[in-house]
Amino acid sequence: MTSLSAKDKDAVKAFWAKISSKATDIGADALGRMLVVYPQTKTYFAHWKDLSPGSAPVKKHGQTVMGGVADAVSKIDNLTAGLLNLSELHAFTLRVDPANFKILSHNILVVLATMFPNDFTPEVHVAMDKFLAALALALSEKYR
Amino acid sequence: MVEWTEQERSIITNIFANLDYEDVGSKALSRCLIVYPWTQRYFASFGNLYNADAIKTNPNIAAHGTKVLHGLDRAVKNMDNIKATYAELSVLHSEKLHVDPDNFKLLADCLTIVIAAKMGSAFSPDVQATFQKFLAVVVSALGRQYH
Fold first, then answer.
1. Can you supply a Gene Ontology BP term from the record (chain A) (predicted)?
2. What residues of chain B lie within 8 A of the CB of A36, using their CB?
3. Contact between A113 and B117 using a beta-carbon 8 Å cutoff
């Protein structure tokens, strides 16, 4: 995977500024979609009472996840260092198979397309795709 | 054999019944070439692809995107037999066009994004699941005859 160019980082920061107020909704929608479209991801949430889109645990966790994404935007110049603690959490405690990062990223992109059809241009799409991939890579750092 | 519920069939036929092929086809293909630039390797003869604006306004790409999208019509009409329906197309993509079948998924993802942008909240999780299932079957069928 390539590292982020200055142009990519600018595009991500500019787009994030537009959408950050909707971060909770984006997270909840993306997570809810993921659980429906990729049912194998439900295995990580067997302890939740309700896994349906719009449910309380899904909304709350979507907010948590997007909080992490927001944090990553602010640390975009050094994701590996910035996401060290989160990487350790995912590696040693949560042990989420890193293949799932790609799945969630895809669903975030779908939600961005539905919510911001005019702003989510191909240029923004490629920058966000690269950013989420770099984020996933930083999260995988401590796995082995 | 792929099983389709009545709901899934109607979701797919509805999406395609209300489709602006020229708009969606050109947007999906140009998005693919911009987001996954290595896919441009198959379009060296199509003219100016030097930057995103050039790609978005390239008439050859627009026409080809429309053509590819219409190619999905046969799958919509033959949902119970997509594998057989696309056997010849699969051979074409392998033997004549030499397209890496991994690229089919990339275009499918871009098509999903374009449809999602068009439908907005109507692109519910269930609709997304059905549409992605349909595209996954198409992608698998197109890769089937490679050897």
1. hydrogen peroxide catabolic process
2. 125-126, 128-129
3. yes
CATH of domain A6-140: 1.10.490.10
Tell me the pTM.
0.91
pLDDT tens readout for residues A45-103: 999 999 999 999 999 999 999 999 999 999 999 999 999 999 999 999 999 999 999 99
Q: Let me know: does A109 contact A129? Beta carbons within 8 Å.
A: yes
What are the domain boundaries of chain A? 6-140
Q: Please report residues of B whose CB lies closer than 8 A to that of A120.
A: 113, 117
SS (HEC) of A16-81:
HHHHHHHHHHHHHHHHHHHHHHCHHHHHHHCCCCCCCCCCHHHHHHHHHHHHHHHHHHHCCCCHHH
Asked if residue A1 has pLDDT above 70, the reply is no
First to last CA, chain B: 22
Give the model's confidence band at A29: pLDDT under 50 very low, under 70 low, under 90 confident, else very high.
very high
Amino acid at A131: F
